[in-house]
């Protein structure tokens, strides 16, 4: 019963968040001005503009437009792109897998390197190993991703010729953009793992485990890791959303055909419906990932489930 | 009779001239947390260690459990020179000295079921003649077998402290170091835990180093006691004698600071 209640609470929260995000996307895109002049050009007559406005429904009152927007959305209709003259969802669909692939790879890389590095730093707190690991994290966090991307292209594509400099297709195309993008989650995961774990290592049950004869590795992996995982998992959730929608610069450097470069195009052409659809898709992804994380909490920490 | 006359090679704990110094790295003088302390515990003996916070008693306990640093001196537990062991040898020797902490829940991993914690101990010390049956171990500390399925947050403070004791005795240690094991508990639960410690001493000839600031408890429970101040043992002997006619001014101050028994009871029922 408590588990069902827990899930229902989290689900309700997620839907509310989604509704607010979607509404915000709608009203903000209305604030950005009338797209009809952009579509028709500066020479359009007053009648042509009025006709286009009627066609797009822009002449109706705002709340009426909002109502149509919401009812369409409930039928999974994201509207039409002005630039591509196709359904927004169709346009996004052609790009979304590339984005998932890039964001997912970057996240996996970030976690695979960040968690052990953070654990290592926590185990050596205050010693040289800790300082080196922390320096790597600071470096990763402060390096602009697009700059790293260009350096990687110079070294690994131009000079060594190991990996292609752009486009997509094979796993080789994925390596450089994923590595560049992974520095963001890696740096944050390292820092948070380190601080979360060094906090847990101060807990009496860690001393108790050592006193009972557990070795350093058994303490780290058997007790400390699980108990310091929660903030790190939260961070992964937050970063996943950011990576999915925020890979704009990396996608630009590597000409990666994902949502980031699509968003750039949509903004450049003042394709308001497409921008709005991209924001909605981003919000759905963000909320969905965080819902999964919230539900995972209950699995990882039974105290949270019992408290709900 | 000299206080150390009973010291023998059979001691479960023999600490000699132990010093623990924390370097100040140029900020004032070094801190001598433990400053030339010698204590010993015999099998089947409960020895009190009394002092205010900052007297060095917890630092001493941590060193005895090989959880804290040792600057000089020796710590022998059940015949092992504990402070010279490293790595695997140390991990094996740790089974002989078990510890119960002050915070009942603090020493339990919040994500580990009680039974899984007991199983972990057996895995860790496969060559030791440990208690094989969870139900038996739990029964010895007055817990039902079903407790093995619980998580720490589902236990009361008293139950959690019993679990800590169960884990400690599972390995059949020679020495139990109990650092303020009852100060986080209700009075009635305190008495149960103290009875349990007494029972373990009587039936297993367990040596117990009982660290406390509660003179009444030490007087009631302990066969001998040490009083520590500023990292040194300032008085030792029979607790009944020490706390009725203290010799050292610091012990006198400690005794005077305890309100009368009646006053204490009133205070607690209020």
Structure explained in plain terms:
The complex is a heterodimer of chains A (308) and B (270). Chain A has 308 residues and is mostly helical. Helices cover 80% and strands 0% of the residues of chain A. The radius of gyration of chain A is 24 Å and the shape is flat. By secondary structure, chain B is an alpha/beta fold. Chain B has a 6-stranded mixed β-sheet, sandwiched between helices. The radius of gyration of chain B is 19 Å and the shape is globular. At the A-B interface, helix 9, helix 10 and helix 14 of A face strand 6 and helix 3 of B.
Characteristic terms for this protein:
heterodimer, A: mainly alpha, B: 270 residues, alpha/beta, six-stranded mixed beta sheet, disordered N terminus
Topology:
The complex is a heterodimer of chains A (308) and B (270).
Chain A: H1 2-31, H2 36-40, H3 46-56, H4 62-74, H5 88-123, H6 128-142, H7 145-159, H8 171-201, H9 204-211, H10 216-246, H11 248-254, H12 259-268, H13 272-300, H14 302-307
Helix pairs in contact in A: 1-13, 5-6, 5-8, 5-10, 6-8, 7-8, 7-11, 8-10, 8-11, 10-13, 11-12, 12-13
Chain B: E1 13-22, E2 31-41, E3 46-50, H1 57-64, E4 72-77, E5 80-81, H2 87-93, E6 97-100, H3 114-124, H4 134-140, H5 157-170, E7 175-179, H6 187-204, E8 207-212, H7 215-221, E9 224-229, E10 232-237, H8 239-244, H9 249-257, H10 261-269
Parallel strand pairs in B: 3-8, 3-9, 6-7, 7-8
Antiparallel strand pairs in B: 1-2, 1-4, 4-5, 9-10
Helix pairs in contact in B: 3-5
Radius of gyration of chain A: 24 Å
Radius of gyration of chain B from CA coordinates = 19 Å
Strand arrangement in the largest pleated sheet of chain B: 6-7-8-3-9-10
The helix fraction of chain A, in percent, is over 70%
* Shape designation of chain A: flat
Mean pLDDT of chain B: 86
């Amino acid at each position: 019963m408590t588990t069902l209640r827990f899930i229902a609470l989290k689900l309700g929260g997620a839907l509310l968040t989604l509704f607010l995000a979607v509404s915000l996307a709608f009203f903000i895109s209305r604030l950005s001005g009338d797209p009809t002049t952009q579509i028709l050009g500066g020479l359009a007559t007053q009648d042509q503009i009025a006709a286009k406005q009627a066609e797009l429904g822009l002449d109706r009152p705002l709340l009426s437009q909002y109502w149509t927007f919401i009812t369409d959305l409930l039928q999974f209709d994201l509207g039409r792109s002005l630039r591509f003259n196709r359904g927004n969802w169709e346009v996004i669909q052609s790009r979304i897998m590339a984005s998932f692939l890039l964001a997912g790879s970057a996240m996996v890389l970030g976690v695979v390197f960040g968690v052990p590095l953070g654990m290592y730093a926590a185990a050596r707190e205050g010693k040289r190993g800790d300082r080196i690991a922390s320096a790597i994290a600071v470096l990763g966090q402060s390096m602009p991703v697009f700059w790293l991307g260009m350096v990687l292209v110079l070294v690994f594509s131009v000079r060594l010729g190991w990996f292609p400099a752009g486009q997509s297709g094979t796993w080789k195309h994925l390596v450089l953009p994923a590595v560049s993008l992974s520095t963001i989650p890696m740096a944050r995961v390292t820092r948070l793992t380190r601080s979360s774990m060094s906090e847990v290592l101060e807990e009496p049950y860690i001393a108790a485990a050592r006193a009972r004869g557990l070795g350093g590795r058994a303490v780290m992996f058997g007790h400390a890791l699980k108990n310091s995982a929660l903030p790190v998992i939260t961070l992964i959730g937050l970063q996943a959303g950011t990576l999915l929608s925020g890979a704009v610069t990396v996608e630009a450097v590597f000409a990666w055909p994902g949502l980031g470069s699509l968003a750039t195009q949509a903004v450049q052409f003042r394709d308001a419906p497409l921008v709005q659809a991209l924001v909605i898709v981003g919000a759905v992804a963000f909320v969905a990932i965080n819902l999964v994380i919230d539900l995972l909490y209950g699995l990882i920490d039974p105290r949270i489930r019992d408290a709900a | 009779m000299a206080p150390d006359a009973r010291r023998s090679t059979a001691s479960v704990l023999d600490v000699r001239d132990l010093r623990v110094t924390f370097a100040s790295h140029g900020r004032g003088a070094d801190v001598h947390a433990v400053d030339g302390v010698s204590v010993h515990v015999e099998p089947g003996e409960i020895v009190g260690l009394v002092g205010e916070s900052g007297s060095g008693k917890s630092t001493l306990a941590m060193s005895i459990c090989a959880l804290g640093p040792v600057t000089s001196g020796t710590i022998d537990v059940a015949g092992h020179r504990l402070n010279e062991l490293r790595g695997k040898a140390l991990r094996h020797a740790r089974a002989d000295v078990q510890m119960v902490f002050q915070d009942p829940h603090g020493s339990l991993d919040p994500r580990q079921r009680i039974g899984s914690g007991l199983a972990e101990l057996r895995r860790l010390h496969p060559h030791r003649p440990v208690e094989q049956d969870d139900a038996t171990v739990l029964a010895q500390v007055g817990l039902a077998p079903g407790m093995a399925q619980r998580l720490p947050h589902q236990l009361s403070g008293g139950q959690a402290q019993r679990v800590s004791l169960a884990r400690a005795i599972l390995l059949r240690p020679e020495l139990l170091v109990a650092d303020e094991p009852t100060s986080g508990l209700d009075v009635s639960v305190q008495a149960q835990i103290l009875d349990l410690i007494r029972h373990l001493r009587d039936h297993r000839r367990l040596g117990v180093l009982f660290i406390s600031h509660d003179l009444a408890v030490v007087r009631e429970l302990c066969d001998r006691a040490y009083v520590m101040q500023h990292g040194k043992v300032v008085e030792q002997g029979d607790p009944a004698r020490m706390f009725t006619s203290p010799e050292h001014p610091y012990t006198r101050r400690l005794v005077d600071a305890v309100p009368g028994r009646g006053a204490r009871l009133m205070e607690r029922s209020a």
